[in-house]
Design a protein that fits this description.
25% of the residues lie in helices and 29% in strands. Helix 1 (21-38) packs across helix 2 (63-76). The termini are far apart. It contains 5 helices and 13 strands. The longest helix is centred in the first third of the chain and has 18 residues, at 21-38. The strands form 3 sheets. A 7-stranded mixed sheet has the order 5-13-6-7-10-9-12. It has helices at 21-38, 63-76, 102-109, 113-122, 215-220, and strands spanning 2-7, 10-14, 42-47, 51-56, 87-92, 125-130, 137-140, 155-158, 162-166, 169-172, 177-179, 182-186, 207-212. One of its GO terms (molecular function) is ATP binding. Keywords: ATP-binding, Hydrolase, Nucleotide-binding. This is Sensor histidine kinase inhibitor, KipI family.
């Protein structure tokens, strides 16, 4: 782990070179502790795959004090426990009417549709980062047997709730947007709601599991197959 200056009132902590469960756990743990340690002196924390950006109020603290607090927190973190973080279960309807690329992905990786679904919901995924759009959580790592590169030509409109795979990551689209991930299902859970508290059901460092639901259960939970 190393700390570098990232601006006049910002420091960035690097926990490793690549995102992986242990690193993500360390990022989440550091963010939680620094939020408490810095308190009113903190402007924002921006966690990512293997780093944490710390933005502080220069009128309430200074570089030296923040650096000392960071060093104190890092001394308490030993690599990160892969079992740390909340476990969040999200429902998914896996069907060819919901997952437009389910058949083609299965054919491409040489498995049956049933095997693809089984492997996707068998995994436990770490929330590595949230970006691209509010509530778009990058989850990893997908079983290498169902890993698949992005589409050669991205879609102009991907519906809200679409569950996709890109390489060894999986995600749920929180809103209608362009996208090139391989779509394998739909989730009725809103991934971002500005009127809710909290606004997102997951945060960086959480662990996510997917639970297969039927088409009827999907609709009962408020899901829709319209291009909304």
């Amino acid at each position: 782990m190393r700390v570098e200056v990232a601006g006049e009132s910002a420091l960035i902590i690097y926990f490793g070179e690549h995102g992986q469960p242990g690193v993500a756990a360390a990022v989440a743990s550091a963010a939680e502790q620094l939020r408490e340690e810095l308190g009113y002196r903190l402007i924002d924390l921006v966690p990512s795959y293997a780093s944490l950006l710390v933005l502080y109020d220069p009128f309430r603290t200074d570089h030296l004090e923040v650096r000392q607090l960071i060093d104190r927190v890092l001394q308490r973190i030993d690599g990160g426990d892969e079992t740390e973080g909340r476990l969040v279960t999200l429902p998914v309807y896996y069907g060819t009417d919901a997952g437009l690329d389910l058949d083609s992905l299965a054919e491409r990786v040489g498995l049956s549709v049933e095997d693809v679904v089984a492997l996707h919901q068998a995994g436990e995924y770490r929330v590595y980062a949230i970006g691209f759009a509010p509530g778009f959580a990058y989850l990893g790592d997908v079983d290498e047997r169902i890993a698949c590169p992005r589409l050669a030509t991205p879609r102009q409109r991907v519906p809200r709730g679409a569950v996709g795979i890109a390489d060894r990551q999986t995600a749920i689209y929180p809103a209608v947007s362009p996208g090139g991930w391989n779509l394998i299902g739909r989730c009725p859970q809103r991934m971002f709601d500005p009127n809710a508290e909290p606004t997102m059901p997951v945060q960086v460092g959480d662990r996510v599991r997917f639970e297969s639901i039927s088409r009827d259960e999907f609709f009962a939970l408020g899901g829709s197959l319209d291009d909304e």
